[in-house]
Amino acid sequence: MCLTCQTPFGKIPDTHKWTFMKSLILLLITINVLANNQDLDKELSRYIEQFNFKPVSIVKGKNVALYQLGEALFFEEAISGNKNISCATCHDPEFGTSDALPTSIGEGGVGVGDKRVATSSHQIVPRNSPSLYNIGAEALSFMFWDGRVHYSKRRLEFTTPEPGLNGDYPEFYEIVDELDSALAAQALFPIASHDEMRGVVGTNELADAKSNLELWQAVMKRLMMMPKYQKLFKAAFNVNSLEDFNIGHFGKALGHYQKFAFVVAQTPWDKYLRGDKNAMSIEEKKGAITFATSGSCANCHNGELLGGVNFFNVVAPQTGPGKDIKHNDEGLFLTTGTDQHRYLFKVPMLRNVAKTAPYFHSGAYASIEQVIEHYSTGPNAIDNYDFKILAPFEKNNYKERLFVETDRYMLFRKKNTAHPLIKSHMIRLTSEEKRLIAIFLKKALTE
Description:
The chain is mainly α. It contains 17 helices and 5 strands. A 3-stranded antiparallel sheet has the order 1-2-3. The protein has a two-stranded antiparallel ribbon with strand order 4-5.
């Protein structure tokens, strides 16, 4: 019996039969999709447990006055030697809290983001500017690509490039007393870098300072001469005398601002992990499973932040100025001096990764697809690195050719300490697997 015209099935008009068949087909498709979704959810749940995947925690404890001071300092050019660059120049919210360049253009450059131009070679910073998304997470105790700033919560000690901040009884205890995290301590060092913010010796009083302490005191002197910061510092710290402020207050405010300003906790992945099984599409779920299985991505990008806490050598191509006269960059080794740490770099976190290209410490790859291809190619990816990826940046931003490491011995040294998955070329992906991982990274992890 046709429910539409109440006639026996054999006498149902053809148009009604077709409507009935379409409804039946749609019902079967819906049942199949639901079953497929349930199977994917069940499989994905195993990997969520295995790799301790968790949604990003919602941070609490925002101090409005401290946040406002930190925000002002983040965009303040007066903290740089020649008053021409701020934190936001290389960590621009409009460019994924980075600068859209392979390696940053520091003090003296002109413009912002992908329009920033270097006017001389010394302005090209050796490394890519890392994004700031979730940079204030409690789990993060190391800062910079090479981990040169570290804070031990258990021992309440800092390890930094400045000995006066380090150890049980730091010489600069007045500064350390104000610092409350690795992020707060990290804020003290870009302003001390001649390439990044300080400027060339002979151009300003910050560049000519004889020590970090002298430099930091000069920065605070500048700020305390500005009525705006006199008011903001007093409001944030409830201190009456301007003489009582030091660079520790500066670092704490900057750290507090970044902790709250750049939280990414509402991606489809985070919503899925909180229980909304419809937050991700079927393809995104398949991508997450591929990410955890054949892609082996979760071996390094796991936990709540999908990175940020460990250091590995993934045989990233070396481009740009590097850290020595041979344009080499040995990563964590430069901090620890331990041979096993050569070419290890901090694993980036992946929330909003689609917004933070180029990728790796050297900014060698301009797209997520190129990064995935790098891992699938294995250790020989650096032997066949396509330096043409850098051509648009060389033409438009750097106005010169960037160095690309091609020496066979240097490439061998880097491959020799590679992560076992890379070194043994265990990651071999089909084109479909590459596509699914890219979908997961681009869609499920973007807020």
